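Q: I have 178 residues here and want to know how they pack in 3D. Can you give me a structure?
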Amino acid sequence: MSAPNQSLAQAIKKRIAVVAVGPSTARGQGAPGVVGAARAALEFVRLERFSTRDQRAFDRALDAETRRVVASLPAKARSWGLARKCLNMFLRDCFYSHDLRRAFKLGVAERRFEVPLDAVVARGLRKHGRDRRAPRWPGVKRLTPELSAEYQAIAADLSRRMRISRVHLDTFLWIEGR
């Protein structure tokens, strides 16, 4: 099967944005319209920027898209943590989509993707993170790039022990914490 045509790929991205960012994702973020704004911003993520083995290039793309999503959110809900969570959930689901993974060559970056962070995943990382002590979870709204990096480092350690990429940790930690 060949890669999907552009209109199909865009439709799949739009569907993934809707499924990845539901009402529970943005609950308590301080403004109406957060879910719709996040979904609309995610539709325009340039997935080809994430097709790289280069960690620095991947991080630059991730940071740029996070800033773009932050700017698209309603003023009272503009937080780096919410934007990064929504973006990581969206990217994870794009990676899991056979068609998008193939069309945008996302498989080459599997080890670069972050685990989406929320209270449930943070609790799991604190429980299973042996090599590093996790900081207190501040909530998605107050998550900073520095705290996120600390949690992502714990996730990287745990994923190495589990012999999986860190993007997949959410599958285990979120289910365990429910």
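Q: Anything worth noting?
A: The CA atoms of residues 41 and 68 lie 8 Å apart. The chain has a mean pLDDT of 92.
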